[in-house]
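Handout, section 3.2

Students often ask what a structure token actually looks like in practice. Rather than define it abstractly, here is a full record for TAXI family TRAP transporter solute-binding subunit. The first block is the sequence as you would receive it.
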Amino acid sequence: MRKTLAALVAVALVATGCGGKRVDPNAGGGAGGASCEAGEGRLTIATGNAGGVYYVVGGGLAQVISNNTKIRATSAETGASVQNVQQLVAGDYDIAFSLADTAADAVAGKDSFAGKPQKIKALSRIYPNYTQVVVRADSGINSIADMRGKRISTGSPKSGTELIANRLIQAAGLDPAKDVQAQRLDLNKTIDGMKDGTLDGLVWSGGLPTAQLTDLTTSMRERVKFLDITPLLEPLKKINPVYDAGSIPAATYKLAKDVPTIVVPNLLLVREDFPTANACAITKLLFDKRADLEKVHPAAKDILREKATATAPVELHPGAKQALT
């Protein structure tokens, strides 16, 4: 069964940002229709780094949409949240995964979106991302403040990971541009750097488990360790209240004990003009076919209907509201 699902996801993970007939904004009920039946067309989902949870769940979602509607959906590898929102608004993608803090910045027009509020809506709140900070045991790093002068992967450029990494570093009293040797690397290159010793540590925001971190902890064992970053939670909450306390269960990566950390919800985003009927149909599929998504990645078990509408300050798309009421 897992081989079959993996094959389906591989088909869905077509790394292309556009092409083919796009979904007509007026198809399947348009912006004001009450239908919940998706129209015909094609759409592309912006996910994240290859192998990351966005990438895997996004591929599964594309397959679910293609199998259950008249829409042919594909998913694309990207740098993740910030890039996803920017290219969603530009029309390169039709649906985008994003961390809630990035999405909040986008609608407010601040930080990476300074002066340009983005016209986006949410289909749903989905599973949370866990901020996973891992360092080499011989690096001398026991807190974010200890990263001064160290070689730290802060994630892909324009990613939600990079946003959180920089905020953590600043909250610890450091300047990300001067005090840390920040390496803007995707996850695969980050893991390679940890293994070959060219990196001292990494920050990663992702679902549990993330395959590359499983690989890292399995191959390096006691030579790497996770940091408890919760002492920095309150400074981050002052920036954005979406940050919350969480815990990485020891069983996730076969650790000696649970690791306290900071969690951030994820949102599934669309443009304001996304067809209402398609928004309704896809939102319903998230929950009606959640079991299919769980088979692709266990993080999908935390896509919960009771939390779906908690997307503020990003407003729910009217079609999503229809699906969730």
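Discussion prompt for tutorial groups: The chain is about 35% helix and 20% strand. How would you have guessed this from the sequence alone?
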